[in-house]
Design goal:
single chain, alpha+beta, four-stranded antiparallel sheet, 5 helices, 7 strands, about 35% helix, DUF2441 domain-containing protein, DUF2441
């Protein structure tokens, strides 16, 4: 297959070389939620989409990092729908980087949270239009207006200085289905 090659960190350790990654259709138990999810995403959602929009486990009433991450993800999706509807949904994509070095930087940035140290890195091959956004902007350490602005910057493909400790880290949203290439690390 001819296409552009990006790199993905397999933090879940579920990928295999030369496999196709697609979306799944999940059916919540409540019929109204099942209908709503299918209305939003008739082609299905990715594993990330499952974790961030469908997963029935996290409760939004809890004041923890997981609930905050889910809310930030929802804000990003709502900004995309309102202002950038032609961009791919984060709930329907595989996350990748432009280089192996960037994938390693991503692993390093996540290690303190979820033990991703040593996660394998694979090529991702796609012919689809992708989105390039600074993942470091997905951070709620700011006012509501600033968070909205950061979401707008992200979907515009722009960034700006936030903190010396967190350099720019461009992520590539690769629409599914996609093909996993060879393991490179």
């Amino acid at each position: 297959m001819v296409g552009t090659i990006y790199y993905t960190a397999d933090t879940q350790r579920t990928l295999r070389p030369f496999c196709k990654i697609g979306m799944q259709n999940y059916k919540p138990e409540k019929e109204e939620l099942a209908n709503f999810l299918n209305q939003l995403f008739p082609k299905g959602i990715s594993c990330h989409g499952y974790n961030y929009i469908y997963n029935p486990e996290p409760e939004m009433s809890k004041n923890d990092i997981n609930s905050l991450s889910l809310l930030v993800g929802l804000i990003w999706e709502l900004v995309r729908l309102a202002h950038f509807p032609d961009k791919p949904s984060r709930y329907q994509c595989l996350f990748a980087t432009e280089s192996v070095e960037d994938a390693m930087a991503f692993i390093k940035s996540q290690d303190y949270r979820d033990g991703t140290d040593g996660a394998p890195i694979y090529e991702v091959v796609t012919t689809a239009s992708v989105h390039r956004g600074d993942m470091r902007l997905l951070n709620a350490d700011c006012s509501v207006l600033e968070l909205y602005r950061r979401a707008f910057l992200y979907w515009s493909g722009k960034t700006e200085f936030i903190d010396d400790e967190f350099p720019v880290l461009w992520e590539i949203l690769v629409p599914l289905p996609s093909i996993i290439g060879k393991r490179v690390f």
